[in-house]
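1st attempt posting a full record on here, be nice pls
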Amino acid sequence: TTVAMCARFINENDSYQPHPSHKIMQIKDPDVREKKIDKYSQDEA
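the predicted structure (as tokens):
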């Protein structure tokens, strides 16, 4: 769907990613971290 394509673009776009020092990037569990990064990216867009 169009929404899925837009979400994928946003999630992969570096300009919407959290800064390396952001607390999300400190999460040890990669699955949890990835989900939080995706949400952060979509909220930033």
